[in-house]
């Protein structure tokens, strides 16, 4: 039995997938494109066409990727309690994929998300809440919008550096790769600073 046949012959959790699989019966090129490989992480994360198959974004690839994340986090937790933030934008299946990720994380012992993404309000940013932005203009916008935002920094600033992490929309993949490496280093510095401040 081929992977396509295995998917086709069992009840799937998203009815759209079953409908798609039935529509491509006998179309070898379409079947092959969906199943010839597992969808891989790229420089901007796990991205791909939404649809049925191992080479598509769907509830199964999202669950698999989330389980990999959970395995990594649990391995490196060092006995410390952890939480995970899940967010989505307005693209197709965003809410569904968030729900699937939350379910996988809950099965691994992470608490169910206590909130969903929403617009910042004044009560969200007072006290000891830390806000990190990618660009200085975003930080300035927060300061202009809210009366009291004492702990707003750019990511670079909080990591002890200067400058922005610019938006990459429309840039070549090589630029995304470079930004990913940069973000990884900055976030490590942020974690070090947070740990140091916690010990004070």
3D architecture notes:
13% of the residues are buried. The longest helix is centred in the C-terminal third of the chain and has 27 residues, at 173-199. The strands form two sheets. Strands 1-2 form a two-stranded antiparallel ribbon. A two-stranded parallel sheet has the order 3-4. By secondary structure, it is mostly helical. The model has no long low-confidence stretch (mean pLDDT 86). The protein has eight helices and four strands. Strand 3 (131-133), helix 6 (136-145) and strand 4 form a beta-alpha-beta unit. The protein has helices spanning 3-8, 15-23, 28-35, 59-75, 94-107, 136-145, 155-158, 173-199, and strands at residues 41-42, 45-46, 131-133, 152-154. Helix 4 packs across helix 5 (94-107). Helices cover 48% and strands 5% of the residues. It folds into two domains: 3-107, no CATH class; 122-199, Response regulator (Rossmann fold), CATH 3.40.50.
């Amino acid at each position: 039995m081929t992977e396509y046949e295995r998917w086709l012959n069992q009840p799937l959790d998203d009815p759209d997938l079953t409908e798609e699989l039935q529509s491509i019966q006998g179309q070898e090129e379409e079947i092959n494109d969906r199943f010839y490989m597992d969808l891989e992480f790229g420089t901007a994360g796990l991205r791909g066409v939404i649809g049925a198959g191992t080479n598509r974004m769907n509830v199964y690839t999202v669950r698999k990727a989330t389980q990999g994340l959970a395995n990594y986090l649990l391995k490196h937790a060092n006995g410390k309690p952890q939480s995970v933030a899940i967010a989505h934008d307005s693209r197709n299946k965003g809410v569904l994929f968030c729900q699937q990720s939350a379910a996988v994380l809950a099965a691994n012992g992470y608490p169910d998300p206590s909130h969903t993404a929403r617009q910042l309000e004044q009560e969200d940013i007072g006290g000891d809440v830390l806000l990190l932005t990618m660009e200085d203009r975003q930080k300035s916008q927060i300061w202009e919008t809210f009366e009291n935002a004492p702990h707003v920094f750019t990511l670079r600033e909080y990591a002890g550096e200067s400058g922005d992490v610019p938006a990459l929309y429309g840039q070549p993949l090589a630029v995304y790769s470079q930004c990913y490496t940069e973000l990884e280093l900055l976030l490590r510095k942020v974690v070090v600073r947070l740990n140091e401040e916690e010990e004070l």
